Amino acid sequence: MTTPAQYDRDLAEGRVARLKQDLRDGLATAPGDVEEMDELVATACRLLDAELAFDEAKHRLANAELAARHAATQRAVVYHAAAPVLVSLVAGALVLFEVRPPLWLFALVPLFAAGLWIGFGPVRRVGDVIRERIRAAWAGGVTAGLLVGALVPWPAAGVFTSLTAVGVAGTCGLLWRESRIP
Hints:
Order of helices and strands: HHHHH
Helix content: over 70%
Radius of gyration: 28 Å
Strand content: under 5%
Distance between the termini: 34 Å
Largest sheet: none
Number of strands: 0
């Protein structure tokens, strides 16, 4: 199914191709009189206008595709943000009820804030920003999984704690990098 922007681009591309062919056919033989020359000049002017319309149609198509990616990203990151936010809340409750030491807050608060920013922060319509937000969303989800592994009392909890700290720093770093994109 073609979108209106794709249809406009294809229509403009076809018009440019037709005008180029008309111009080639007219230039295949030398113009015999002034009227034929005027017709070729008019065709060349229409070709220039059609090429401008084709360029505008390509830009509108690129903007429409970016808008579609933007909307899909805004929907997806809300789902991706659930894991860091919920796991941070549960871990915060464990700290509140003194099951875990308050030292955990150094990882929980930034992860919670990053999860909120991932899910509810504005996403600009720039391709690089969209890519960075998706990367940050995935990093936040993986970090939430690592945090769950770190909270469970088992022998590998120390490794998961270290990986959680790296994941929190990576997620926050990706969000910082996204904010630096012009």
